[in-house]
Amino acid sequence: FPLPFLETQIVDGAGVEDPALTRRVLDACSIAPGLRNIGKRAEARIQAREVEQLIRRRDFAAIRELRGQWLAGIQTASPILLAYSETARFAESALKAFGAHHRLQHLGQAKEKMKSIEALLRDERTRLTIPFEAPLRAFSEALDQMQSEAAKQAEDVLPNPFRVGPALSREEGPELFRGREYAIRQIENTLADSNNAASLILLAPRRSGKSSLLKMLPVMVPDAVCVFFDLQAHPIQSPSAFWPTLAREAILQARIQRRIELPKFPEGPPLEAAAAWLGELDRLPGGRRVLLAIDEFERLEDLFPGDRREFLQLMGLFRATIQHRRGVRLLVSGAAPFTEIDRVWDDHFISTRHVKLPFLDRDSSVGLLTRPEPDFPADAIPLHVAEEVYARTGGQPYLLQVHGWLLVERLNEGKRKSAAVADVVAVEGRVIEWADSYFRDTYRNAPPEMQEGIVKLALGESRREDFAIPVLRWLEWRQLITAEGRLAVPVFRAWLEHYGHLEAVTRL
What we know:
- By secondary structure, the chain is an alpha/beta fold.
- Helices cover about 55% and strands about 5% of the residues.
- A 5-stranded parallel sheet has the order 2-3-4-1-5, sandwiched between helices.
- Helix 13 (about 310-325) links the parallel strand 3 (about 290-295) and strand 4.
- The longest helix is centred in the first third of the chain and has 24 residues, at about 100-125.
């Protein structure tokens, strides 16, 4: 039978120094028929109280992850907690935003997401959801206060919508992600063709927008479950950990993005369990399709040091998935074409369609710089200034973003409203500094003959026919050489000159 006042005692006990006792009582309630509802109501009140405390501390990262003493993560969370997690994701972005205008944009998105919490509380008003009305009020107050603070900071400051850090996310990317319509159509058409088991290979040099494209696939391909798995962001200690880690990430993303439950990864040897799990994904109700997008695929072989057999087994499972699955498709993304790495990739990734991301063309580049978002002032980066940036960058997406960011910052520092060509020249030193990782990765990690080819292009001392075929192909793949045989990214010369690479070659 229900014990009087037990619910209140549990809630009060959760705040004392011995929460383990409260957890034991909740566990006991879960197996006692007359006390189960009491335990559920008490736990809901405790969780709601902790969410409210995190909101008042503005620890939105913890809410996004549902990480706390009484929050057990997203995997087992209720719909109301998942709604709080999704709202907190935008609030966290607002805290991390570079400028006040970005902060306002994310706060507006957070308020839109907060409507889903309101809808859940309105449609399912029970003793398990009513406790979450208090944190909702706290969330609204926090967002209002942050919005007021950001609005004051935004006065008389140009918004800076450009992004120069991590890959664009699906929250901030649609306006900034330009010139990729053809690639999106290729992916959509491949997924829509149920009679063809083709999978995809997305190839482009680093800093060309691959990860941004993959992160925004859930928005651009809304009728599929798109799982983004970055091998660099998910360090895996052993081959046997690859598939369980991928499965956990897939289940998590499907819950957040599509509000659907994917099958759990089964027990047993990893390879056999992975094959069974893929089979279950292939038979999802309603013919729902799943796209497993694996970024930085070149790093995959690093998981198999000294064990070629395990690597080939993994590749064999990839091949079987490509050939025999219709509801599950693979998309691997990387910077190096298969011809530059192990031939085993070509042997196993049969029936694949290649999707390449070129640099942005002139119209896309100029449009990005002059109107990165609808509210951006039309004369902040005039047409002739945008064309000068395009001429300096060749449409390289990351360099366009760096130039845009630095130009807006220069205008705000000088309390000006419109940039001039002289500003493009003035920020070049900072461009070299900010984009050093792109230049360094392209040049210093290249073989000596490829480095020599880049320098020759920068010095303007060669024609296309002067390059050996392997060097020419390498330069073409990195989109560093034009059809006329010139350096496609002229600002690259400034970086080479800054670090003395041109001077060293000239002396030789």
